[in-house]
């Protein structure tokens, strides 16, 4: 009850602050403003909307003990000035962890996917990603060996051990270690660019102008060229076929990758780097989804684990370097997931993960 009271009190304080911030900006609030919660994300941040005849705005609640708003503000300012369509920051109170933001609406890019061919629906997303990758932001942290390995450790720690209840043998631990090392070396060998780090359908919004609005960018780093593209095309929340993925990778390489980058990375090497980078991300994401359920009580992400694991299995089975890993995933990990009580009613298509 105390925790719920704190949440209510923060929400009330945020609403009061938001109304005062709008008044300070000269927004006429004579008409009633509607206050409503907006879907949150996988962090401690929460979002609310104030809307009425005078307009609508997003209020971010980022508790200072859990979230640091400063990276968000720095990146938002740099990207906004560079023409990247991120929400304009209209007011801030870092002591309370409150931000007043431009509202991009609710038209997530994933909604368009249900109506359009992905090659058409994602043109604006590719163009915006290409602009992000050309930015110069040397102050961003590096997506280095330590961070790559720390992310992949979530797979054995949270997904295998705590969710599936698997205890790995020394030989199995060695298989994982070798895979992690190979993926780290491959990621670090790629051209290093600005990386959003969560560039997928739930963080991209279709704007009335036809542009794509970009949100949830506060964890941006300098990292591998293919990272954001694989986040988009092997999206844990959207079902992509291998043919669709391959066609979109080709399109991005040919039409959106600068000639200087194409000179550094051949088409075949780009595809290979893309799939290997995806394996690193999928190991991380399986672990994060398990942790969100077990530690944070967020069960909504459990439904996305099978799709994420399927991406991992398909990629691993496509390269001889990962043959042993692929066999282990199919023989040990997949059966454990299929037999888990949480997935007792899951429909597993014939030939799944093959």
UniProtKB/TrEMBL annotation:
The keyword Cell membrane does not apply. Residues 36-256 form the Aminoglycoside phosphotransferase domain. Keywords: Transferase. One of its GO terms (molecular function) is transferase activity. Gene3D superfamilies: 3.90.1200.10, Phosphorylase Kinase, domain 1. Pfam families: APH. InterPro entries: Aminoglycoside_PTrfase, Kinase-like_dom_sf. This is Aminoglycoside phosphotransferase. It comes from Nitrincola tapanii.
């Amino acid at each position: 009850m105390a925790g719920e009271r704190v949440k209510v009190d923060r929400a009330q304080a945020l609403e009061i602050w938001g109304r005062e911030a709008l008044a300070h900006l000269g927004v006429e609030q004579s008409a009633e403003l509607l206050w409503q919660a907006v879907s949150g994300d996988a962090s401690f941040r929460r979002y609310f909307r104030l809307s009425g005849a005078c307009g609508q705005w997003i209020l971010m609640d980022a508790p200072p003990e859990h979230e640091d708003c400063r990276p968000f503000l720095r990146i938002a300012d740099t990207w906004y000035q560079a023409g990247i369509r991120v929400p304009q920051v209209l007011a801030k109170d870092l002591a309370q962890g409150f931000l007043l933001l431009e509202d991009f609406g609710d038209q997530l890019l994933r909604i368009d996917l249900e109506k359009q061919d992905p090659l058409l629906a994602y043109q604006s997303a590719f163009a915006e990603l290409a602009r992000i990758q050309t930015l110069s932001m040397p102050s961003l942290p590096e997506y280095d060996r330590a961070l790559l390995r720390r992310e992949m450790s979530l797979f054995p720690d949270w997904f295998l051990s705590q969710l599936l209840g698997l205890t790995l043998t020394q030989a199995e631990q060695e298989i994982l270690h070798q895979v992690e090392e190979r993926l780290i070396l491959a990621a670090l060998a790629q051209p290093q660019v600005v990386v959003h780090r969560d560039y997928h359908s739930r963080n991209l919004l279709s704007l009335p102008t036809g542009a794509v609005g970009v949100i949830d960018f506060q964890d941006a780093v300098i990292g591998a060229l293919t990272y954001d593209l694989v986040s988009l095309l092997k999206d844990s929340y959207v079902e992509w076929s291998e043919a669709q993925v391959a066609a979109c990778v080709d399109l991005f390489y040919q039409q959106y990758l600068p000639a200087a980058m194409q000179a550094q990375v051949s088409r075949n090497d780009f595809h290979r780097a893309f799939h290997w980078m995806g394996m690193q991300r999928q190991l991380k994401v399986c672990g994060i989804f398990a942790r969100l359920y077990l530690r944070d009580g967020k069960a909504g992400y459990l439904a996305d684990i099978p799709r994420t694991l399927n991406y991992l299995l398909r990629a691993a089975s496509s390269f001889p370097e990962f043959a042993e890993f692929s066999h282990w995933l199919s023989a040990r990990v997949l059966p454990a997931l299929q037999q888990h009580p949480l997935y007792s009613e899951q429909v597993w298509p014939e030939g799944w993960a093959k």
